[in-house]
Design goal:
The protein has 13 helices and 24 strands. The chain is α+β, with helices and mostly antiparallel strands. Strands 1, 2, 7, 8, 9, 10, 18 and 19 form an eight-stranded mixed β-sheet that branches. Strands 13-14-15-12-16 form a five-stranded antiparallel β-sheet. A hairpin with a 5-residue loop joins strand 14 and strand 15. Helix 1 runs parallel beside helix 4 and helix 7 runs antiparallel to helix 8. The chain is globular, with a radius of gyration of 23 Å. It starts with a strand and ends with a helix.
Length: 493
């Protein structure tokens, strides 16, 4: 019997498998697709943006350099001062200038080797994670589609094809149409679509008729990518298109002409798919021994590019908590903090997606709101607000700590000897940074589940010590009070 079976070998399932494998758990990943390679996962159709928070997660597990290599991205060495972000992205098709971000308004930001964000592909992410999972002893079975789930107090049995697999826990990372979610009886609630979106790789007879980048029009929006023939269209049809069939060349041309207001011609379509802005979320992320993460737990439109990052955040939050539960040393209620912390984050992202759709609707009221929003986004406050919401580094969980840093993503503290926090987290344990060297005895009494490091920091941001969870969240911060520190360690480890 495996400790954990994961349904889905996408980025979320693979990242979770790596987290569990790092902790010594026995993990089996079942993937319904027959093989990992697909044109929808490679460049350009598989192009995705990783937020700063996601990039930092790869850094903390020693996977950043392989990811940058696989993505064809050059790393930028950390400087002595926090640098402006390289990209902020867009809101509802309005691009934002990264130079407009007010660095002074970003809490607990320190320079480090992790970039604020990078462009990559699903194939690059999955290749790096699959290689690491194999090194950690994770087994991946391709062409294994889940068809049945049964559960009792001791185990879950997952049926895939002719085989049944028993595990202590099952995690559904099997996408927006999750079989695990359906079979395990999770509620799924939200809002119905207002639009149909299309993504295509095609040959255009007259590409000069389309503007580069995002263009919001009187009837919708279209975006042209740097790769010739790669474009997207949003058609506010109430989600009426029949998505059970791929869009034809004729249909795509009709929609693109209507939305763009041009007579552009598509001579052929190599690949095309459709999506909607349907925004739904599981009512809980755990039912008994079954959990959900990624698109299995929440779906929304791809506006803002937060779906992949939201799912990776789920995996990062869940991995160490489930591993501690499997290994038998989790404090009471630790696993239940996963849905408690991640459900609100998912709800915020769904509302962020809904807000963009509301601003982009082709009606007079939305056009008026869009003009106001565009003016606000042109300010430093507006640009900084969007960056904080989308960077993945400004999430704060309500952990009840007295210090305002508690619950935040930990800055990449650098000790005087050059050691960075991210380098201390590569084995998946929690970390104590004791800048004054006064918590050693208390920390060492709590065994090997946390790593202790002491010494002055090049910038300690006004705290004497911090306790960082394995997911990079500050569990406690403040002056070296052994009693308060000991309570925090006991709570989480």
């Amino acid at each position: 019997m495996h400790d954990v079976v994961i349904a889905g070998a996408g980025p979320v399932g693979l990242f979770l498998a790596c987290e569990l494998g790092l902790a010594g758990c026995s993990v089996l990943v079942l993937e319904r697709e027959p093989e990992p390679r697909s044109p929808w996962r490679s460049f350009p159709l598989g192009l995705r943006g990783l937020s700063g928070g996601s990039v930092e997660a790869f850094h903390r597990r020693g996977l950043l350099d392989p990811l940058l290599t696989a993505s064809g991205v050059d790393n930028v060495p950390g400087t002595d001062e926090p640098a402006p972000p390289r990209s902020v992205g867009h809101f509802a098709g309005t691009p934002l200038d990264p130079a407009g971000v007010d660095l002074a308004a970003l809490p607990y930001r320190l320079p480090g080797p992790a970039l604020d964000g990078i462009m990559t592909s699903l194939e690059a992410v999955e290749t790096v994670l699959a290689r690491r999972a194999a090194e950690l002893g994770v087994e991946i079975r391709w062409g294994a589609e889940v068809s049945a789930v049964t559960e009792d107090d001791e185990a879950v049995v997952v049926r895939a094809g002719e085989h049944g697999y028993a595990a202590r826990w099952l995690v559904g990372c099997d996408g927006g149409r999750s079989t695990v979610r359906r079979l395990a009886g999770f509620g799924f609630a939200g809002t119905e679509p207002q639009l149909t979106g299309y993504v295509a790789l095609a040959t255009l007879a007259d590409p000069e008729k389309l503007r580069p980048g995002f263009t919001v029009t009187a009837t919708g929006m279209y975006v042209t990518m740097p790769e010739p023939g790669h474009f997207g269209v949003l058609d506010f049809d109430g989600g009426a298109y029949d998505r059970s069939r791929p869009p034809t060349r004729e249909h795509l041309q009709t929609v693109l002409r209507r939305v763009s207001g041009t007579d552009v011609t598509l001579t052929d379509v190599r690949l095309a798919s459709s999506f909607t802005d349907r925004a739904m979320q599981a009512t809980t992320y755990r039912r008994g021994r079954v959990l959900l993460a990624g698109d299995a737990a929440h779906i929304h439109s791809p506006l803002g590019g937060q779906g992949l990052n939201l799912g990776l955040g789920d995996a990062l939050n869940l991995g160490w908590k489930l591993a501690a539960t499997v290994r038998g040393h989790a404090p009471d209620g630790l696993l239940d903090t996963y849905p408690a912390e991640r459900l609100p984050v998912g709800a915020q992202v769904l509302d962020w997606s809904r807000a963009q759709v509301a601003v982009m609707r082709p009606d007079p009221h939305s056009r008026a709101i869009r003009a106001v929003v565009r003016d606000l986004l042109a300010t430093a406050d507006g640009t900084t607000y969007v960056f904080r919401r989308t960077s993945g580094t400004s999430i704060r969980y309500d952990l009840g700590g007295e210090h305002p840093m508690a619950g935040h993503n930990a800055p990449d503290f650098r000790l005087a000897d050059g050691t960075r926090l991210g380098e201390l987290m590569r084995d998946g344990r929690g970390v104590v940074l004791d800048f004054g060297g006064r918590l050693r005895d208390v920390a060492l009494r709590h065994g090997s589940r946390i790593r202790y490091a002491s010494g002055p920091a090049r910038a300690d941001l006004g705290v004497g010590a911090v306790l960082v969870r394995p997911d990079g969240i500050v569990a406690w911060a403040g002056e070296p009070d052994p009693e308060a520190f000991g309570k925090a360690v006991t709570r989480w480890f």
